[in-house]
Structures are given as C-alpha cells and as structure tokens.
Amino acid sequence: MRNKTKLRKWGFLVLFLIFSLSVFLGGETPVVGSEKSIKTVRFLCMAGPAGRKYTTVFKEFEKYGMRVIVDQVPWTTYLEKASLAVQAPKSRYDVIDANVEWVLPGWVVGNKVFPLNEFVEKTNFDLNDFFPLLLANVYWDKDQKYKPDGLFWDWENGLLYAIPSMPGTTPLCYRRDWFINAAIPGPPKSWDEFLTYAKKLTVDLNGDGTIDRWGYAYASAPVGGQLTDYWMLFLRSWGASIFDEQFEPAFNNKKGIGATQFMVDLYRKYKVVPPGVPTYGIPQAFDAYKKGKVAMCTQWANALASVEDPSESVAAGKTGYAIPPIKEQMGARVGNFAYAIPVNVPDPELSWKFIQLASSYEVQKKLLPEIAASRKSVLDYIDEYFADTYLVPMNKIMLGETAALKPQIPNILEVDADMAYPVYDAITGKKTVKEALKEAERKVYETMKKAGFYK
Fold first, then answer.
1. Is 0.85 surpassed by the pTM of this model?
2. Range(s) of the domain holding residue 387
C-alpha cells in the first residue's frame, strides 16, 4: 500500500514536470490536472480581424494551463486602456499587444514595461528565428531611450522590451487583370516604371472626356500619421530620412526634395491620382482601390485581407501583391506590434510563459493570414500555403534593413504634425516643395530643441 502511494506521488510529480516544461517550452503536451490548475491571462489588443483571430487561437491555451481573456478594442479605447493599465497600482492586463511606434517608446522612457533580457536568458528563448528588423525595433540602448530611425542593432548592449507579435508593412497591391489588358508585364520595380504604368492605367473608360480610373492613390490627411505613412515611403526609397544620428532633421536636402516632388507631381503634374486625394485619409485611399477607382495602392498589410473579401472589394481574386518600387533602396513602411509585460503585473513569470506560447512557431502558423508571422521559420509554410497573398512580399520587405520606420521619441506626434502640414501645403499648391520642407525642417528643429534634444 505504501509503495502504491509512493508511485502515485511520483506519477503526479512526473506529470506536473511534463506540464511545466510543455508550457515553458511551448510544447503540445495537454494539461493534466483540475480546473484550479488553470490560470487566467488577460490580453489587450486592437479590435478587428487580428483581434478575432487572437481570440480563436488563444482559446486553445487552456490545454497548457492558461485561460486567455482577449480584450480587443478600437484604437481610441486601446490607447486609453493601455495607458491606464501601465499607470495603475496593478495592471488589468498580464500582456499588452503594444504598438511599437506610438505606445511602446513612451513606456520604455517611463520604465512602465519589463526589459525581457533576463526572461530570455533564463529560459533559453531563441531570438535568432525572428526577423532582425523587427527585433531591432524593440531593442533599446541601455543608456539611450531614443532612436532616430526606430532601430537599434547592437543587441549585446541593448535591452529588449517586447517580443514581436504582429508586424505590418505596406506592400504594393495592383490589379492583375488591368495590367494584363494594358499589356503591362508585371508590377513596377522602379518609380520610373511606376509612373509609366500609372499614366497608362489612368483612363477615361466611357469616352465622355472625364477620367474614371487612376493609376494610384495615397493619403494626404496631415493628422494621425496618415500623410507621413505615404511620404516616408517615397522619402526612404530616395535615400533620405527624418533624422540623422544626432536627431537633426535630415529630409530638407536633394534626396528629400526629389522624393517629395515626385509625390506632389503624381497629383499636381501627372494627375495619376484621384482629384479628391487632398481629402483622403488612409481609409479613403484604400477604399479607392477596393472600389475599382485606382489600379495600384500601398497599404498596411493587416488591412489587406479585406481586399479578397468580395462583399467589400471588387478587386477580390484580381489583385497581385509585390514589394513597392525602389529608387535607391527599399522604402516600404514597417510598423510593429509586440507582446509587452507591464511592470505592475501580479505574475510576470505567467506573462512570459504566455508570450513564449503566443510567439511560438506552431501558434504563429495558426494565426495566419490575419496576423503575419514574425519568425523566419514560418516563411516556408507561407510560401506553400499562402503563395498568392500579401504575406510573401511583406516577408521580403521585413528581410531587408532599409524600410521606413518612425523615430522612437516621446514627442513623435508633434514631430509628425510639424512635417505633415507643410507637405500637405505642397500637395495642395500653397507652397513649393522647397518652401514646405524648409518650414518643416524649422518646425521639427524647434520642437526637438524645446524637448531638450540639442545642447
């Protein structure tokens, strides 16, 4: 009888160790135990297709001992709830899917989220499988909390503040059927080709003397980063940047003027974008493509799934995807969401175990295609099962190092407005490009000086 008792104790211990290792390493071993052994993890993310996919996939985590409550909320509510969570005595959320451009930098400066270096080292978590560009976006210098181009490559001397969860880039979408009908061989590789194709695809369809379809559309709304999302695409491709390494404005130069002039000329000179572009935000520019008004668009990847929904897109089944054209280098915009642990969570170890599972190879496969992969090992799976989707050019963009990322500074919203309004004035003809960039440079310099960036 005593031997049977010992056997039962040893059996329970073995099962407990197996369960612990499976959670720790992201394995597939099912949970053995009572309802009391399951712990609740609260997760905050953006609402939409991605939030719904998180909810579905994370339900499976109960077999690893976690009941995940996904709170998916719209952008305005997300900002409020995320801010309250990191400032409260005790965070409502164990893990937050943090926007790396607008949200995470402020938390890093304010020491609101854990550096994850010790968690990584303690659990031998392999970072080498993640896209280097995405990792560089969530590393910070130990002695410097600001990054002029949103990247930090010296990982040995850096602090890791989050694990990439939902990367975003801006691939080029184009109407394959219209390209074929116009005898265009494929997506443009250069901006010269892009302009040639845009002119050819800007047409009067019914012969009434009025243009009915245009080559391209972009956002001009100078609020909330909408215009700068598109402007940075051209700026970076021409080889210019928002800041240099000393945080001095680096766009009012020959390259920056050339990039901005090209963007302005698409509207004012070549007239290959709709006349309503000065009123377009990102949603309106995207809708123009989905409604068949334009032949090409560049759009955030996490929105591109709707292109293939025939209930809201006439381009469903007719769209091709490619990397954007290149001038000097790749200039596609890259944004990033990442799993972050607030410093005021009750159980950081539980939060880290969730992140390990959520970012594992198997889970990333299940999150496709609504949530793009941040691991390179998922590329072969994507090539096999999602070969005709936006995920393929998106991965090519993320494998590079010259994409356009926002500077990671606490006053990025103010700097964004300093640049966007003058560029908008150039698009609408109120200023020349040179005048606009000179004004933007002056405003950015004043803002950064006031913030203490210059001695």
1. yes
2. 26-168+335-398
